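Researcher: Let's try something more involved. This one mixes different molecule types, so please make sure each is placed in the same coordinate frame as the others.
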Amino acid sequence: MPDRGQLQLKPYEVLEHTADIGIRVKAPDLAGLFKNAGLAIFQISCEKKETTDKKVHKIAVAQKADNLEELFINWLNELLSLSAVEALIFEEIQITKVSESLIEAVAIGSSAKNYKMNTEIKAATYHQLKVEKGPSGWVAEVIFDV
Amino acid sequence: MSNPGQIQLEKIDDYRWRIPKSEKPGMRVPGLVYADEKLLKDIFHDKALEQVANVAFLPGIVNNSLAMPDIHWGYGFPIGGVAATDIEEGGVVSPGGVGFDINCGVRLVKTDLFHDDIKDKIQDLVYALFNIVPAGVGSKGDIRVSAKEEKEILVKGAQWAVSKGYGTQDDLDCTEENGAIAGADPDAVSERAYERGKAQAGTLGSGNHFLEVQVIDQLYDAELCDTFGLNLGQVMVMIHSGSRGFGYQVCDDHVRGMVHCLQKYNINVPDRQLACAPVKSREAQQYLAAMRCAANYAWANRQCLMHLARLAFEKVFSKSWQKMGMGLIYDVAHNIAKIEKYVVDGKEKSLCVHRKGATRAFPPGHPELPDRFKKTGQPVIIPGDMGRNSYLLVGTEKAVETFYSTCHGSGRVKSRTAATKSVNLNVLLKDLESKGIIVKASGRGTIVEEAPEAYKNVNDVVNVVHNAGISKRVCRMRPVGVIKG
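Model: All components are placed in one shared frame. Result:
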């Protein structure tokens, strides 16, 4: 599993919002877009501490929705929910299947004990949500309640 | 008032501004913003006024889409927004009008200690509080509950905590809804919400949540201060927390369903985070039943947090909390939807009142107030930022124009990223220390994000609600010890 500390580029950029946190993510394909947005949550909310615990936890994540925007929000909120319930921080995401109405993935993480928590992201919201395909790939903008 | 390229406001008086229905086609009622010219300059900085206009689209909305002076940009509703819908006229409930942190709220505890009694022990007190109160993201508490007990919490709220020995009947008398709102149905709650709420009872959380030791530095109404037993220099404890992961999950579960209600019930709103359903619909009833469970979870949580704070005081001062006079002044919710009765156009109606970053403020004599508050009006607790002040207010009859609602805090003015860029942690801590404020947080980032400069001045906000007459100042506190998540 890649060490998050070695990531050269953040998979997101921050959008200004008075009370909450907005992000923009880009990717050449839909799988990359969902993966980058998912990883952004955990990169915003915590930092890895020095640890000898190398145990890797894998969790299957599947979501369905009526359209792409709902799928995007449901996916992000499912990751947040699983992270809280399982006490895991997801460091890598492997998307096995994605369409505009379905996603199947494996979220790979490490115990939350190995992390210093900063900002608590409560949920992803529909406010000013964008999930669009542009000339140079996919772009999404989402505001998190923090 | 001119606000180039954005929503225009018409001045009603020095503290009230109207957004006419013509500002955005589809508004069912005007917007009404409580602010003075100073605060409006901050309000114009973001998209909060557009959100006030968007809320005016909600089916069944009555009178006005309201904004309190601490209003700022949220998601769906603005933070500081109030909207009441007429249940018999197809009025809706929107989970976005409550938010993810259901029954986020504040409680204020008095002590009989004075600043002189604690000034040499503030550091010890802050450390004792920090050690005993689980704080931070996803923090878990020592107050462990079984699955069966969790269901009990959802129905009994703070009454559950008191039955476990974490407080007294007197505490319940001083809590909105006596710490347990009726109509909570644990069967309306998902298994995931149960799992997410497990082990978080008695935890503070992070972000803007806090526990503060404060000292009264100004009395505004001598008679009310006497009634509440409050004097200059008296030490108070303020706790700001909510329903933690349990509430986030309840909101998420129900927003998922409610986005489909927009089409099903032919509802047109300009933001899907305003997803809603008629209060009488099955979807709305399920949401309200689950939301009330989360509200009760939050009241239990704040009751447990107060219990832990009392234990920390006992440890530091070697006296029982009763001997230190640590009675609860009041506990209020500021993210909630409630069914309340109001006279509209001469008829009594049941309305669904959404308060998203706004506080209920019942006036003296209101039938739902317990006897002890019948003469004073309902206590209202307004926390400020960690470097300035917080307030105790009471409700007034004039607030009937806001469905007995008032502000809930100071309101953010600077984003977290902007605060992180402009605030130096060490300089901030030194500055706070020079003002006699000791801060202890589980995350250093939180202190910077929550720096005083990220907030409006609470004194300006309270000035507006007091002068507009929608609540009345009782006394003001300043912080001396701050515990952050």
